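Model it.
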Amino acid sequence: MYIPGYVDLDWADQDSLNWIIWVTEAEEEALSLLSQLSYFGSSLIEPAKPMDIWIISMEGLKGVKEKQETLFDLFSFMAHPVARTI
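Modeled.
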């Protein structure tokens, strides 16, 4: 997956955060995967904190019309969090 225009400049000097991102073709697939993974909750990230696990769909990304300043901004309204440290 390539999201043009996004780089991690870390102007805020934030702590490092590990991410796992599952990408599906359709939003329906993303929601199905979310329901399967949600059962495990934060146990998915315990060995590797700080870590976030997200699911996004290509269908959802295609629906984004406005550029977001950061990936955090983008994910906050179109991605599905599975487990998050923060």
